[in-house]
Every structure is written in structure tokens, then in C-alpha cells.
Amino acid sequence: MTDQVTEAVFAHLRGIAKKSLTLLNDLPARRKLIDRYFQLDGEAPPVLGQAHRISINGMAAEWVTAPGAKPDKRVLYIHGGSWVSGSLEGYRSLASQISAAAKAAVLVIDYRLAPENPFPAGLNDCVAAFAWMRENGPQGPGAAAKAAICGDSAGGNLTLACWLALKQQGKPGPDALVAFSPATDFTGQSESLKSHAGRDPIIHHMVYEVIPQIYLGEHERRDPLASPVFGDWQGAPPTLIQVGSEEVLLDDARRMAGKIMLDGGDAELQVYDGMPHVFQGFAPKLGSAAEALHSAGQFLRQAFT
Questions:
Q1: Are 217 and 247 in contact (CB under 8 A)?
Q2: Which of 20, 82, 87, 153 is catalytic?
């Protein structure tokens, strides 16, 4: 039986989805709406520890460190928002809970968004931010002992694409990847885009007719840096993918984990029954979200040993 918190989360997301349709031509208002994605009942989740704003060569960013976080173990967090929205403020709580679970410092970045800055601007920012994070921590310059990349939705896409870009460029990569509800295929081949269209409370399958034009323009949709499921995953670090069973992106996650393993990589797929898109951000109120973050923290701590 669905519990009351889960029902409240689904109702909240349906409300956001309905209102977002009225804001298609008002991008600033839509971005403010998406910043309330995790604000169940109008209440933002708690922030654990501290956050302080920095600039990475002109790009706004924020270090989030929960009590017990080790400054030389670092996670680059890439927020979601369909490549057109998302902010440091909207993800501060989730970043802090990842910091607490992983016992690592988390760097959230304000990468460039479409349509003002289409592909590959945001991806380039992520690659640059990871390279910077390897040499700089929350206390200033200093090499990381271990480093990972984590992200959700569009940020999950960028997390995976970031590793592929680092590999292509011959740059040092992360020790682990964590992707929550990642979008992995801009060609729209995943069956769940249609089969789950009536179940997903927030993402409409028609998004694949709109977002590619905004983010990619005329760029090739099968480019692995846009659709990571088509990439070469040989040599990939340990990768954790979490997804809810009610998502239209369920099969994007399944196919991505399968492709990594097919190429000889180590991928773990966790499907959370009855959960919607990026449910992790509703912790600690939502039990499955707290469970998922605990699991992600364990995964990262193991990769950091």
C-alpha cells in the first residue's frame, strides 16, 4: 500500500508538472518553479552542515560539507532540471545529505544552461569543474585523495557524459559515478517512455520532442556525449544507477547499466519500487529516499577506500 508521504510526493510532482505547462514561454518563472521540486508541502528539506559559495573561473559553485565530511574526499554534484533549469539553492539539501552519507565534501556547480548556452557548454563546465575539484577542496588548494561525480536526471546524463569526455581528452577520471534517474538516450528508444507515460507524475514522454531542440539543436542525438548509452564504457569506474519504477526514464537507466556491463565495466542498478523521478531529494521525509541515499553513501565510501 502506498504510504501518505509517497502519495503527497506524487501529488506535489503532478502539481509542478501541470503548472510547468502554463510556463512554457516564461523560462524565468519555470526555473523558479523547478527550484521548488523537493519542497514538499512548501517546506524545503533540511541542510546538514555548512555551505559556502565560491567561484571557479567565473562559474558560481558551492561547497557543501556535512559534519564528518573529509575534505580530501570529494564529490562533484551535477544538478538536474532538463538542461534548462536547476540551481545551487534548489540542490543544497540533497548535496548535504550526500555529503553526510558519503562522508565527503560535495561541490555543486552552476553550469551553463540552455537555451542561452546549448550543448556542449554545460558539459564543458562539468569537465572543467571536475579537473578543478581534483586540485582544490573546501579548505583551498590541495589534491583530492578520492573523487567522484554524481548527478540526477539531466545531471545524471552530464555525470555519465563527463566521464566519457574526460576519457576522450585523456584526463584523469573519477573513482566512481553515481547517477539518479539519468536520461541516457536522446533518440528516444527506451520502451518505458511510452509504457510509463501514465505512471510518471512529472515527466511527459513528449519531452523528447522538445528538449533535444533546446539543448542539442541540430547536433547528432546519438553522440555519446549527448546520449551516453551509445558510448564506449571500457575502463569505466564503478557506477551506481538508481531509478524509480514509475519513471518514463526507467529503461534509460536499465539500458545504461547494461551497456556499461556489456563493455566490461562495473555497474550496479537499483530500482526503487513505486518511486518517481529523482525521489532521493525528498529525504528524510520519504523513507525510500533515505534508503537510497544511504545506499549511495555506502557505494561512495567503498569506492573511496
A1: no
A2: 153
